[in-house]
Amino acid sequence: MAVTIRLYISLVLLSGLGTSHFLINPLRNNRVVDGIEIYSTKINCKVTSRFAHNVVTTRAVNRADTAKEVSFDVELPKTAFITNFTMTIDGVTYPGNVKEKEVAKKQYEKAVSQGKTAGLVKASGRKLEKFTVSVNVAAGSKVTFELTYEELLKRHKGKYEMYIKVQPKQLINHFEIVADIYEPQGIKELNADVSFITNDLMNVLTKSFSGKKGHVSFKPSFDQQRSCPTCSTSLLNGDFIITYDVNREQPGNVQIVNGYFVHFFAPQNLPIVPKNVVFVIDISGSMSGRKLAQTKDALLHILNDVKEDDFLNFILFSSDVTVWKENMVQATPENLKEARNFVENMQTAGLTNINDGLLKGIEMVNRAREMGILLDRSTSIIIMLTDGEANTGESRVDKIQENVKNAIGGKFPLYNLGFGHDVNYNFLEKMALENHGVARRIYEDSDANLQMQGFYDEVANPLLIDVDLQYPQNAISDVTQNNYQHFYDGSEIVVAGKVVDLESNSFVADVKGHGALNDLTFTEEVDMKEMEEALKEQEYIFGDYIERLWAYLTIEQLLEKRKNAEGEEKENLTAQALDLSLKYHFVTPLTSMVVTKPEDNEETQSIADKPGEVDGDPHFIIEVPEKDDALCFNIDAQPGVVLNLIQDPDTGITVNGEIIGEKKASSEPNKNKSYFGKLGIVALQMDLQVEVTPQRITLWSGGRKSSFTWMDTVTITQNGLSVTINRKKNMVVSIGDGVTFVIVLHQVWKKHPIHQDFLGLYTVDSHRMSTKTHGLLGQFFHPFDFEVFDVRPGSDPKKPDATMIVKNHKLTVTRGSQKDYRKDSGQGTKVFCWFVHDNGSGLIDGVHTDYIVPDLFYHSPIQS
């Protein structure tokens, strides 16, 4: 029985704090159950400078004589971005495409309504998302699932952690976990802890590190996986945790690769800055029982860790507000003893007045600072714990946020702990983020007290306050967040950006902050050329990892800012994050991944070799089959200008294009892009005109007018003309026998504040057009020759320059690439080409302004 499927996978990942986690559960059966055998599962982790690239691969075969369903489950961290998912069935691979969420959602819902197979990511536990997909596999057929995701590992209590939940629930012929780590600073320590380890498994768990490289592998044999010598069940069920840290001879480390930099900053051995902590605790009726007991236990343990230079106070809120002390008090032994007694006697009652509780705590800190009670070189924080929603006093969440923000005034952070699932966590998170803090959910479980203590431990030891990371002016751009209110012991600050000045030999990073004793400045200077060469030599590095790290961090921070933004600001942040998500193929809260195996009658139309095309800015791509190469150039024209693309005076065929710009012009030079917003096709001998816009297609033929939208799927044939509209993708226009154009529709997010929909034109067949054909594209329908030599380094290390002789002109050209969107209007196919600068000067006949025409249907008369 042959397998015919269409699979839509809609993935929604939430950003959050945490380390690297995933769970492998490829089949919930024994080795061969109901005819299905999972014969291989591999987890490959490659970490380069904290940036983890993880690939999970599972292979299965249907041993039955009928079609069977195979499931693939993976749990991965909420902080991760999926970058790819593929299915390979009988040697044919079906890749995933990342699309704007609303576009993918419609496809997903359609698939579900038709009973098609669908995959989803959903929450699974505290820090994980579950990815699940099932597919029907024909008898005797094999299927391979491969999921790739990436994330930046955060330093937590002095360690980077990768947590793998292993739970295959069956014996697998080939099971392995392999992690390769490369850290330019050198690896200080590397550990692997396995909760289900036995004496027999000890020898298959290997870990080693030397210098900058570390390696961990776990490859149990089939028999070693057995829970007992004669059992058919697997003992692989538990936690596989890899932790490591790096050497820190200097407080910071700067790395530069391919025009991007990353700066890791984590100074050691600094005295702790005294802190002033106000605990604002919910004691409403819903906190009774185990919640209150666990809260008390956590606070009592925290009081054991408070240092004598610290100041503290407790604010309790229910229907009313109760304070422990009228002012902040120092953590002397006597005061701590009294504080423990106060905590032990806390009792629950009443409603939840979050507003008054927080404002009282903020007032306490502000007044103590004004009265000079607090140490000059100290920092203040407020930690609020609640298990419910505001239901007395001021209960409007937007008003509470406003009150709290005005009262704090940016002077210190607010940390919100939401206990259980009845809290309005979005409200707590927004309020914390706009006051330079974070929110954390405390799960109702036996270890809730440990969760609270763990959070406090993260903020218990501030080493620097008001940290500002500075870089050379005019040498960088697009820098991620580079100022922080606190640097806590055991954590790390990471800043990334683009390097604009690639000619400079050095890169200087300065970090300034206030310490416990004095103001500190840390300076690091690196040799850019030596750094790039050193990193390029390392075999552990995958791709442009710093560029992808920068994109990951930028998207993560844009999404955080978006949570508190409104109106135009929110739209701009959304647009920026969406653009980066699509460009770098990240599944984020704004995007989804779609994997489709089309039905036979819906396969993408195959398009033949073409002599020329125009798409994008507008980009012109001229493929030269005789040279097995391509040339490309851009035309810089103002919106409203109409350009002649193709004109054949013998056949009477003309194609013109009208330029459109962005919705909102950028104030930065060279940042405004232009596109083709209208195309006009004229065929005089057929008395035909076609106007194409991103909204509709209009035909005039023999005095009759016909109009269609891009929502249509239709073929029109009349008087030698054939027009086929492929819904929301492209349209194919054939004029007689031997002239065919493909027009591609490019759609952007409809609420995008900058970009708008545009068109691309591809010439598929031009062999019936005459030798007199001209125009920006038409002139290249005739054979021409060029020669490229003297290839040399260019201003961009990834794009060499060369000398080209073409049409008796000697030009400097640059190797680059453009996108061909004929088969995939979303991602496109990369076409490498020699780029001709200055609007194609020297390649096109004359200058680009010679091709400006007065209107969309302008044409020269037919030659007799």
Task: Give the helices and strands, then pairings.
Blueprint: E1 7-10, E2 20-24, E3 32-33, E4 36-48, E5 51-62, E6 68-77, E7 81-89, E8 92-100, H1 101-113, E9 117-124, E10 128-137, E11 142-152, E12 160-166, E13 174-182, E14 187-194, H2 199-202, E15 205-210, E16 213-218, E17 238-246, E18 252-257, E19 260-265, E20 275-282, H3 290-305, E21 311-317, E22 321-323, E23 329-330, H4 333-344, H5 354-370, E24 379-386, H6 397-408, E25 414-419, H7 425-433, E26 439-442, H8 448-459, E27 462-470, E28 476-477, E29 483-488, E30 493-499, E31 506-514, E32 519-527, H9 528-536, H10 545-562, H11 567-583, E33 591-595, E34 612-615, E35 619-624, E36 629-634, E37 642-648, E38 653-660, E39 675-683, E40 688-692, E41 696-701, E42 704-709, E43 714-718, E44 721-726, E45 730-735, E46 740-746, E47 758-765, E48 786-796, E49 799-806, E50 809-820, E51 829-836, H12 837-840, E52 852-853
Parallel strand pairs: 1-9, 2-12, 4-13, 20-21, 20-24, 24-25, 25-26, 36-51
Antiparallel strand pairs: 2-6, 3-4, 4-5, 5-11, 6-10, 7-8, 7-11, 8-33, 9-10, 12-17, 13-16, 14-17, 15-16, 18-19, 19-30, 21-22, 21-23, 27-29, 27-31, 28-30, 31-32, 34-35, 34-47, 35-36, 37-38, 37-52, 38-39, 39-40, 40-41, 41-42, 43-44, 44-45, 45-46, 46-47, 48-49, 49-50, 50-51
Helix pairs in contact: 3-4, 3-8, 5-6, 10-11
